Amino acid sequence: MKNFIYFICFILFCVGCKQKNNHPIDFYYWRSNYNINDAEKKVVSDLAVENIYVRFFDVDKKTIEPMPIGVIKNFNSSFLPVNYIPTIFITNRTFVGLSQDNVKELAKNVNNLIIEIALSSQLDHYSEIQIDCDWTLSTKSNYFLFLEELKSISKKNLSATLRMHQVKFKDREGIPPLDKMVLMCYATENPNEVEEKNSILDLDLAKDYLQNLDKYPIKLDVALPIYSWAIVTNHLGKVKLINSFSEDDLKGKPIINKGNGIYEVTDDFFLEKFYLSKGFKIKVETISESLLENTNSFLDKKLKDNYRIVYYHLDEKFTQNHNLKYQQ
Asked: What is this structure's pTM?
């Protein structure tokens, strides 16, 4: 009887191991000036990171023609032993009003600039390109054509980001012609319009948008946030967003802690080049360990495959505040 109990315990242990979700960790790198410090190197090593999605440049159409902006500086691919994946952010308005010939020319130009940056940064090999664009119903035809053209001329695997509203309204907004996408499980609210909720990630809202995630027909990895920012509101109710910000940046400042990440300015001072006056309110939004854990638990129920987690983004200011290994 004793041996039988041991046998049952062994079986249950094996089943539990089999059902354990495996989430290898990757990172986005979203700074314009490539600069990895020792702490960030250690994070990459400790987490056995295989892939880093490096933002090479943005594309926007502020005038007549699409133009690259914010091209990465000082990128050196030999700095970390990882697979670098060139990542390009393209504004939705870039695709408005383009002819099919314009779209094909855009794909050609994007690919040429990727090659140029790769050559100058000793990136001899990359197997994948990722495109980040929040396409809409009015731009999906041009955007999908762009993806097809870029995949054809680059001869690379092509992936793209997927917003949550594009999951919920997939019948309306379409399915891109891809084999792999990365679900952006953040930016659930507009920080200019939300006072009480966490605009970086509101899990209840995410669950609503992703209730049919298991029916999305493309293989998905998941991007999760570890960043924080500050939302500053002046006397007139106008809002300013300060990126890459934490509560540590408020140490020694003339403020009163009102609780729940809300602070009130008690005297005038400069904050990240912004002039704040007495009476301004500062809301610091962060991501807690419990929120990440609960988000992972929800996604595990929706996604059958062992998806990879891509954290946004690799920066000591954010990585030092999270036990990311626990999330694997």
From this structure: 0.91
